[in-house]
Design goal:
Length: 375
């Protein structure tokens, strides 16, 4: 028997391995590819790759009339159609010096906040299924379907609405709109509460999200993070509050703020925002009065020469539109600042030193939509 000496301390050389996640991967929420550099189970670095869904929306806008460009914005963030329509119409209205009628503004805000609810419910369900929980997506889709049915009765479409127009909205809402929305809000609120009770303080969910993907406030700001993902890191920045537009100044609501900037905070910000959106819609229904829904203007928009930048708060963060007019009925230039694209900058600091299994949780917590990333 030959004796073998085993030292208590042995040095091992490790080689980093490249691991592809996507672009055909259900947890990337679209055609998005991450190249992970891993050391064992730890993520050393991550390189995001986009460009698999290039749409050319900004270039296409230069060859469409202002009214037709609205349909392109419907297709950027395709789960926040009405929020996107609103931001472009506001930019065109700023150039033209148009103020939509008050009733039209209330209808816009009601629809935008309903769309925020539908988007956040989709996030809650898909984020849960990313982490292995099946039931919340059933609850989330049930309530989202109710909202989609309401959209269909108002705009004629479940998605791609083309309802918010330059100067107001396409037409007034149906006569039974207010009582139907009130009943809808009661149902949706119960659904949000069910998701909240089921998921938020679930022991397994907490283990997968607490302390995972932490990003501090200075880093979040330097990355250009906005929306619920920024507020999760402790800054109460909300375009609706800091740069009020439409009828938001008439509404009373709070801006939820997190403490740790981790995946759980980013998730919970959206749950709390659901409750705030429910409150805002109820206030709008109480305040809205009869009147016109469209400003008096020429049928074909032709803004004067000039340029303008307008931004707003969509479910994923601060969305901005830089619009340049040359005086014709087609925009000279349309440049979009999409929150999903800008929020992806924070992926690297969030994911370094995380486990491979946490990569899905971290990416999902940003709630990206590739339609506005590859715009």
């Amino acid at each position: 028997m030959v004796g073998v000496t085993v030292t208590t301390e042995q040095a091992y050389d490790t080689v980093d391995m490249m691991l592809n996640m996507g672009p055909q991967h259900p947890a990337t929420h679209g055609v998005f590819r991450m190249v992970l550099t891993v050391d064992g189970e730890r993520v050393v670095d991550v390189t995001p790759h986009i460009g698999y869904l290039h749409r050319g929306s900004e270039k296409l806008a230069e060859n469409e009339s202002y009214g037709q460009v609205v349909t392109l914005f419907d297709r950027l963030d395709y789960v926040s159609n009405l929020n996107n329509e609103l931001i472009f119409c506001r930019a065109a209205e700023r150039l033209m010096g148009i103020e939509p009628p008050e009733r039209g503004q209330y209808i816009r805000v009601i629809l935008a906040e309903l769309n925020r609810l539908a988007s956040h419910l989709l996030f809650i369900g898909t984020y849960a299924i990313d982490l292995g929980a099946m039931t919340p997506i059933m609850y989330g889709f049930r309530e989202r379907e109710r909202i989609q049915n309401m959209f269909e009765s108002v705009t004629g479409a479940r998605m791609m609405h083309n309802f918010i127009r330059i100067g107001g909205v396409k037409e007034d809402v149906p006569p039974d709109f207010v009582p139907r929305v009130r009943a809808l809000l009661d149902d949706v609120e119960r659904g949000v509460q069910e998701c909240d009770r089921l998921l938020t303080f679930n022991e397994v969910f907490l283990a997968r999200t607490r302390g995972v993907g932490v990003i501090d406030l200075p880093t979040a700001l330097s990355c250009g993070l906005t929306g619920p993902s920024l507020r999760a890191s402790g800054l109460a920045y909300d375009v609706r509050k800091d740069y009020p537009y439409e009828v938001y100044p008439y509404l009373s609501y709070r801006v939820p703020v997190g403490e740790n900037g981790d995946c759980w905070d980013r998730y919970y910000m959206r749950v709390l925002e659901c409750y705030e959106s429910l409150s805002m819609i109820r206030q709008c229904l109480d305040q809205m009065e009869e009147g016109p829904v469209m400003a008096q203007m020429r049928r074909i928009a032709r803004p004067p020469k000039g340029e303008v930048y307008v931004h707003g708060e969509n479910p994923r963060g601060d969305i901005g539109v830089f619009l340049v007019s040359d005086g014709t009925d087609k925009p000279y230039r349309v440049k979009v600042r999409p929150p999903s694209f800008c929020n992806l900058v924070s992926l690297r600091p969030m994911m370094r030193d995380a486990y491979i299994a946490d990569a899905v949780a971290i990416l999902g917590s940003l709630d990206i939509v590739l339609g506005e990333v590859d715009r």
